[in-house]
């Protein structure tokens, strides 16, 4: 289980406390506060704090644009306008702080999103738990023959069992050696900051991750996409469920324009105009590469 009894008791105690406040609160987010949403085999995402709501976005926009927003009839319409025209600063008025438990190799992908504040569990000061991400059999896939970053067919039978045995065995063996190297129980062992180098990339770490809504949407657009690696996508999916309860109007606009929409290059737009005019367009006549054409066709199919 992702949570120990002590951690669950701490969460229950935090949720049992309540304080009066004059700041904006969102019932949907209040229900999420401190709760752990389980992800993968030992991971979780939980909301520690948040600031702002849908009205904070429109409030900031009206301060910034004044008379320019008078044609917009309501807050939802204004939010859709801001999303449609790629405005960013109004969405930066909302922030969220998450506690995330995740495998190290997922964390190294995640940290590429540098527009956030991060404080990670330190293996220099503390000893990491014996917890590793071991994929379910249905997520064991071979390398894609089309996409250098993607997965191909799922491994079956003996091959899947062989890979799982190696993953489990290597993980446990590495942790055994990690423990044996540590300076504890009176022996002259290795410093924690050095012993940690022996741990595999599937060991779990934790961090607090604070980000504004604009940059969170950018993260979700990339990581909740069907082409993202499964192990980070499930975290993004869990966060999506939180965000839609936090800023429902903004999330609906994000889903419509970013997740459900498509962006075309100049060549793509030219090809689309010709298709609408009844002309036959091929990859060769479009001027696109094979990869561009494949992505263009995928966008049209939805």
UniProtKB/TrEMBL annotation:
Any idea of its EC number?
2.1.1.148
Question: Which Pfam families does the entry mention?
Answer: Thy1
Q: Where does dUMP bind?
A: 109-112, 120-124, 196, 223
This protein's pathway: Pyrimidine metabolism; dTTP biosynthesis
Active site at which residues?
223 (involved in ionization of n3 of dump, leading to its activation)
Q: How is the cofactor bound?
A: Binds 4 FAD per tetramer. Each FAD binding site is formed by three monomers.
UniProt cross-references to Gene3D superfamilies, sorted A to Z: 3.30.1360.170
Q: Which InterPro entries match?
A: Thymidylate_synthase_ThyX (IPR003669), Thymidylate_synthase_ThyX_sf (IPR036098)
User: What does the UniProt keyword field contain?
Assistant: FAD, Flavoprotein, Methyltransferase, NADP, Nucleotide biosynthesis, Transferase
Annotated catalysed reactions: dUMP + (6R)-5,10-methylene-5,6,7,8-tetrahydrofolate + NADPH + H(+) = dTMP + (6S)-5,6,7,8-tetrahydrofolate + NADP(+)
Q: Where does FAD bind?
A: 89, 112-114, 120, 212-214, 218
Question: Lipoprotein among the record's keywords?
Answer: no
Output one GO MF annotation.
Answer: thymidylate synthase activity
A Gene Ontology biological process noted in the UniProt record is: dTTP biosynthetic process
Instruction: Kindly list the cofactors needed.
Output: FAD
**What family does this chain come from, according to its entry?**
Belongs to the thymidylate synthase ThyX family.
Q: Which NCBIfam families match?
A: thyX (TIGR02170)
Q: What does this protein do?
A: Catalyzes the reductive methylation of 2'-deoxyuridine-5'-monophosphate (dUMP) to 2'-deoxythymidine-5'-monophosphate (dTMP) while utilizing 5,10-methylenetetrahydrofolate (mTHF) as the methyl donor, and NADPH and FADH(2) as the reductant.
Q: How does it assemble?
A: Homotetramer.
Give the protein's recorded name.
Flavin-dependent thymidylate synthase
Organismal lineage: Bacteria, Pseudomonadati, Pseudomonadota, Alphaproteobacteria, Rhodobacterales
């Amino acid at each position: 289980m992702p949570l120990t009894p002590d951690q669950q008791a701490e969460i229950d105690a935090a949720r049992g406390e309540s304080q009066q406040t004059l700041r904006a609160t969102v019932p949907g987010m209040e229900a999420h506060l401190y709760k752990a949403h389980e992800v993968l085999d030992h991971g979780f995402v939980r909301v520690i704090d948040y600031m702002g709501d849908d009205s904070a976005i429109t409030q900031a926009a009206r301060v910034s644009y004044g008379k320019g927003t008078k044609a917009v009839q309501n807050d939802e319409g204004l939010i859709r306008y801001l999303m449609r025209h790629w405005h960013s600063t109004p969405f930066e008025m909302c922030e969220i702080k998450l506690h995330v438990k995740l495998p190290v190799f997922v964390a190294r992908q995640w940290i590429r999103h540098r527009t956030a504040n991060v404080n990670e569990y330190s293996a220099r000061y503390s000893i990491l738990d014996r917890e590793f991400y071991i994929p379910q059999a249905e997520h064991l896939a071979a390398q894609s023959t089309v996409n250098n970053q993607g997965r191909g067919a799922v491994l079956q039978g003996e091959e899947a069992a062989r890979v799982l045995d190696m993953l489990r065995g290597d993980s446990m063996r590495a942790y055994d050696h990690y423990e044996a190297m540590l300076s504890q129980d009176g022996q002259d062992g290795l410093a924690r900051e050095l012993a940690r180098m022996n741990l595999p990339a599937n060991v779990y770490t934790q961090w607090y991750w604070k980000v504004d809504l604009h940059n969170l949407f950018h993260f979700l657009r990339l990581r909740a996409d069907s082409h993202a690696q499964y192990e980070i996508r499930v975290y993004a999916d869990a966060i999506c469920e939180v965000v839609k309860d936090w800023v429902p109007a903004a999330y609906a606009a994000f889903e419509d324009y970013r997740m459900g929409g498509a962006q075309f290059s100049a060549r793509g737009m030219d090809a689309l105009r010709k298709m609408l005019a009844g002309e036959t367009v091929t990859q060769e006549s479009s001027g696109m590469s094979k990869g561009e054409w494949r992505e263009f066709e995928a966008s049209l199919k939805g």
